[in-house]
Amino acid sequence: MITGHVWKFGDDINTDLMLPGPLLTASEEEQRRAVFSANRPGWVDEVRPRDILIGGRNFGTGSSRPAARSLRNLGLGALIAESINGLFFRNAVSFGFVAFECRGIHAAFEEGQTAEISIESWTVRNRESGALLPISPVPEQLLSLMISGGIYPLLETQGLIAPKAAS
Amino acid sequence: MGMTIIEKILARASGAAKLAPGDLAVVDVDLSVLIDLSFSRGSWREVLKVHNPEKVVVVFDHDVPASNRETAAMHVRGRDFVRRFGIRRFHDVGPDQGISHVVVAENAYCLPGTVMACSDSHTCSAGALNCAARGLGAPDLLYAVTTGKTWFRIGETVRYDLEGQLGEGVSTKDVFLHIAGTYGDHANQNVEFGGAALPYLSIDARRTLTTMGAELSAEFATFEPDEVLIDYVKARSPAPFEPQYPDADAVYVARRAIDLSTLSPMVALPDRVIRNTVPVEEAAGEPIQQAFIGSCANGTLDDLAEAARVLKGRHVAPGVRLLVTPGSQRIAAAAAKAGYLQTLLDAGAVVTPATCGACYGGHMGVLGPGETCITASTRNFKGRMGDATARIYMASPATVAASAVAGWITHPGSL
Question: Residue B391: pLDDT above 80?
């Protein structure tokens, strides 16, 4: 069960908002600090570990950049959106950030409410209102990558890439 | 039932007899393209084994020549990788420099009927060459480089049948703006282009459309192969290839005909393109400080020719900066030979080296607070090209060039 405080964002939230172009070569910490700096300045100071982000349609439209990693590095427990951009979803899987699609999620929550996500039953429940919605299941192979830290640990285990150097 | 182009390419690459929407396919990757950003300190991990160096291409493009010490160090890491694994096809700063998607097309590295991976969202560009090309994330790409494989979820396909011919001053950028405005996003869907208009559309023109497939949030964007494509590839590569045509009974989630002769110049209003485009006339008169023509979508020789046609004998308005960034140094050289560059320079344009540059707000044309830009590039997201208060309109090279002359957004036919 993933339980957390809900933050709401709208439709077509793009990757430039999560990771501005000038910071593409910056450190992960600098990138984490810049999330939503153009559309919601100060939010990175309000969000707490295990909080849950709720998005609208086509969340993460835009670039290949590791925006999902920045959301993971903020400590977010999960993203649930009406729909997730295909490339952003790939990055969520491969950087180990939990991201699910759920039709009706945006209308079912107010910001500040608490969401309870169950992967066992593929549902999300609004603790305050009691509303229960089905989540679109993620194929087993992708889910296992997503919840086990993504591709880098896998490639390290297989001896294909070196362990991350201390920075 | 039959398969669409993408289903056929991916079925072959995965060893499956048939693929259909909803399937998860693990496929052999024919070409992995690493860009300079692949070697950024955040994304790069030291590679210990490359599956097949002959299936890897390295192209430095986002920050070339290096504009700061951080990216210079990134380039050093990239050159070390190229040396260590003996990567033969490497495009460093120099005469072969260019934006990866442009370089990949002009060398026909992406062969029809094959699968290509690159960690840039506009990788779908190579769909113009009948290639299943998709932008992946950095970890995905390292997986492809080290194991030779990646995965795709098979989406439904929307087929566009392009008919008729584009009028003067109208380009495939306007076709994209029409599609984005009329039909919205194509998230988790593939886009397939074909139709009677193909003989009239150059590979450059097709690449503009497939590149902008990323802005439709499409999984893949591909063109049906034809004689124009086969001649283009054969002129650039001796390698054998097998183009993939859709089956006659392929299943599409929608099939839409577009008569190109009915289209007119369009513009996307700031911050998003999806359902946010209007005929240029509706935005006309909006004052601009910067005009940009470039990127993987609009830095082609066709685009520079069109800009030169509009700018011939005219001059950029006072207070406006017109920046032109060719998609590759090879295109820059061809544009010089054809006289286009002289025309652009005479008109007051600043022509930069080939790079992604201003398109992603990286360098050579970053916008300041409160500025307005009209751009022929890939994206108009808030903050994309610089300050978050800057406003970015997006249009074709002809509309951008005409607006630079006027000093405000204007229809290319109005000069």
Answer: yes
B129, B393, B38, B61 alpha-carbon torsion, rounded to 10°: 70
Q: Do A86 and B383 touch (CB under 8 A)?
A: no
Q: Is the pLDDT of residue A166 over 80?
A: no
* B266-414: CATH, from 3.30.499.10, 3.20.20.70, 3.30.230.10, 3.40.640.10: 3.30.499.10
Select from A28, A39, A64 the Cβ nearest to the Cβ of B42. A28
The count of structural domains within chain A is: 1
CATH number, domain with residue A12: 3.20.19.10
Q: What's the fold here for domain B5-237+248-259?
A: Aconitase; domain 3 (3.30.499)
What are B265-278's pLDDT values in tens digits?
999 999 999 999 99
Q: What is the pTM of this model?
A: 0.95
CA distance A16 to A19: 5
Mean pLDDT of chain B, nearest integer: 97
- Average pLDDT value over all residues in chain A: 95
> Is the pLDDT confidence value at A167 over 60?
no
> In terms of CA atoms, which chain A residue is nearest residue B39?
A25
What is the domain extent for residue A42?
2-157
Structural domain boundaries of chain B? Answer: 5-237+248-259, 266-414
For residue B154, the chain A residue with the least C-alpha distance is A86
CB contact under 8 A, A90 and B140: yes
pLDDT in tens, B118-137: 999 999 999 999 999 999 99
Residue B88: pLDDT over 60: yes
CA dihedral A152, A158, A162, A164 (to 10 degrees): 30
Shortest distance between the Cα of A58 and any Cα of chain B, in A, equals 7
DSSP states of B207-261: HHHHHGGGGGT-S-EEEPP-HHHHHHHHTT--S-----PPPTTB--SEEEEEEGG
Handedness of CA A50, A56, A57, A62 (dihedral sign): negative
Does A22 score more than 60 pLDDT?
yes
Q: Is residue A162 part of a domain?
A: no
- A157 at the B interface (CB within 8 A)? no
